[in-house]
């Protein structure tokens, strides 16, 4: 990964964050409660959005520089935050630990999204909520093709990010129950509120 990526990430995201993203993040994160795991917390932009119904946030990211950058948001937040260097595909937590798992703009980058979802299920308590905000492959065939063409170069420049990830398909294949789905910017961005119900899903 380019060492410069964490430095420029917030700068390039600022125009989007100032407008619609701020509301999208805040509406999604308002649903978090109890013990929360945030995957790929990056520079910590979600941390000020957690409300008092959250007991504690455990924020993981494999990138040391990103974790360091999140210190300022840890101080601004209302809830206790623990930062841990870790990857979504190998979560250093016991089974059935978390009430909510949050991932925003992360599934585009994780090397093995299916393994990451299995890990999320393992560490989630039955009934846990999984809250995602992601950019994905669009339905429009022309623009989907453009995303495919751009992805190899985009991945090199943007820290492994795939423009063409079918994250919603991974969620459905993993048998998570989708409670609410919304799309933004003509389907480039989505939010998904899912529930992990191991007993229901086995039937
Ligand atoms: C595009 S940034 C998003 C950061 C933040 N969540 C946000 O909403 O702005 C993607 C983040 O995912 C992290 N990441 C990459 N691979 C990961 C993995 N395998 N497990 C967890 N996080 C990962 C990166 O280090 C980076 O901080």
UniProtKB/TrEMBL annotation:
GO MF annotations, alphabetized: methyltransferase activity
One annotated GO biological process: methylation
All copies of domain Methyltransferase type, residue ranges: 37-131
InterPro entries reported for this sequence: Methyltransf_11, SAM-dependent_MTases_sf, Thiol_S-MT
Record keywords: Methyltransferase, Transferase
Any Pfam family matching the protein: Methyltransf_11
Source species, domain of life: Bacteria
Protein name per Swiss-Prot or TrEMBL: Methyltransferase domain-containing protein
